[in-house]
Amino acid sequence: MTDSSTRPALTFDGSPVPFRDGQTVGGALMAAGISSWRTTRRGGAPRGLFCGIGVCYDCLVTVDGDHAQRACVTPARAGQVVESADPHTPVSERVRRDG
Ligand code: FES
């Protein structure tokens, strides 16, 4: 078994997030306990994975500078730079504010 310190990692809003081979960005974020990474324009409701199959577009992130990528269908890669819709606000603050 590989522990998380030896697994490849992407960065999410500047923090390392380890992943397993075959995981998507969304899967890696969820496995790291991050369930929300953007908010709705109206109401500011937290959003993350919903359908998990690339249909609903609730899971949008910026990946290596490409905006509006679906986290649920984007393969995780080592060194990938993933940003939430509001990368300067820690996820914990957004969840507390919205939740
Ligand atoms: S969770 Fe629905 S498109 Fe990604």
Describe this structure in words.
The chain is 15% helix and 24% strand. The model has no long low-confidence stretch (mean pLDDT 87). The chain has a five-stranded mixed sheet, covered by helices on one side. Strands 3-4 form a two-stranded antiparallel sheet. It has 99 residues and is of the alpha+beta class. FE2/S2 (inorganic) cluster (FES) binds at residues 49-52, 54-59, 70, 72.
Principal-axis shape? globular
> Rounded to an integer, what's the Rg over CA atoms?
13 Å
Secondary-structure element sequence?
EEHEEEEEH
Q: Kindly state the mean pLDDT as a whole number?
A: 87
What is the CATH superfamily classification?
Answer: 2Fe-2S iron-sulphur cluster binding domain, sarcosine oxidase, alpha subunit, N-terminal domain
The distinct bound ligands, ions and cofactors come out as: FE2/S2 (inorganic) cluster
Strand content: 15-25%
| Domain tally | 1
Annotated CATH topology: Ubiquitin-like (UB roll)
**How many DSSP H or I helices?**
2
The number of strands is 7
- Please report the distance between the alpha carbons of the first and last residues: 35 Å
* Oligomeric state of shown chains: single chain
| Unreliable residue runs | none
In helices, the fraction of residues equals 10-25%
Look at the helices and sheets and give the structural class. Answer: alpha+beta
CATH architectural label? Roll
Biggest sheet, open or closed, and with what strands and sense? 5 strands, mixed
